[in-house]
Each structure stands twice: as structure tokens, then as C-alpha cells.
Structure prediction request, 225 residues.
Amino acid sequence: MSLFITFEGPEGSGKTTQILLLQRALQEAGRTVVCTREPGGTPIGEQIREVLHAMGNRAMLPITEALLYSAARAQHVGEVIRPALERGEIVVSDRYAHSTLAYQGDGHGLDRQMLHQLGQWATGGLAPDLVIYLDLDVIEGLRRKRQDVSGEWNRMDEQDVAFHQAVRAGYLRMVESDPERWLVVDAAQPIEVIHQQIWTRIRRLCKGCGLGEQEGDEGWQPSSS
Prediction:
């Protein structure tokens, strides 16, 4: 059976690192995994990403952001996510529709009900089986992001601290409204501790949907790093 997992979190929370660790652990357990990202994941989505994140596009309106993110997401779902799920694979995405609710809704103040409807249209109602939220103080996260010379500092990152605090608060409200779908992990912990907590939840979820009950799965262990 297929499984759709998304990662959310503030800037600098370590999503990329944890996705790579999860991908390796799942592959070592014999699973076929598709790792992807938003905005992006497709040639069209990557072009939209460049427009959204370009530092020269500071005049972009929040509603324009929301529409562009949703356009990239529609392409992403149709071209990558749904086909992989239909093949019975595990899809792990760095961000998904909850990002729009948090950033354009809570951060920029757009109508969240309208954003929800837009997201439903763009995704055809496809929701993740599990949302992993890496929680981190926004000032610490921005500090980490600035120090990451290999990473991308983009137009969204340079929003003021109040914006990022509103985004984080929005995420935590979404967790409260649907706790069974979310896993909140303290991203200030050591990398391997975070990975272990995520892997424990994934194993439980896989067993719940039949993926963890195949021969040999009793020996699943988190990959070492």
C-alpha cells in the first residue's frame, strides 16, 4: 500500500536532513520512496519556485504567492504524487498545502477558508497520511538558515520575525485541530534523536496500513547516521 508523508517547519528546522535520513531508512527496509519538494518537484514547479523565491520579486502580493504556490502544487500532485501513490509507493514531500495556510494565511493574513478551498481544488482533496512538523524557535531557525552556506536564502526567508512567529503559531494551531495526522518533533534536539522519533511513528503508521506486516518487517530499525 502507498503512504503520503509531508514535512513542515520553520526555516532552518532541518527538514532536508530528516527527509534524507527517512528516505534511507525506508529504502533499507525495502520500500520504494519518492522524495520531492514544494514549490517544485516538476520542471514547471521548479520554474514557479524561481519566481516565488527570487529576491528581485519583493513587490509580489500575498495573493499572487498563494496562486503561484497552488499552481505549482496542482502540477506536483498530478505529475508526481498521485502517480507514485497509485503505484503503491511512499511519497515524502518537503512541504505541501499546510505551508500555504501557514505562510499566506497566518503570515500574510489572507482568508484561510479561501486558501483551504484553493488547496482542495489544486490537490483534488489529496491529504497526507502524516504531517511531520519540526518545531523550532524562529530566531534560532533563521540563524541556522543564514549560517548554512550551502542553502538557499530567499524572498520568503527575509520576512520579518513577526511574520515567521505568526507562521509558527499557525502551524501549532493546525496541529491542535488535527492531532492524529500530525507528529510534532522538537527540532532543537540532536539529529539522530529527531530521526528516531520520526522513525518510531512511521513504523507504527506503516503497520496500521499493512506496510509493516510483511515478512521480515519485524526487524525494522532506524538507519544509523
Summary: The longest strand covers residues 3-8. The CA atoms of residues 120 and 126 lie 7 Å apart. The longest helix spans residues 62-86. The two ends are 27 Å apart (CA to CA).
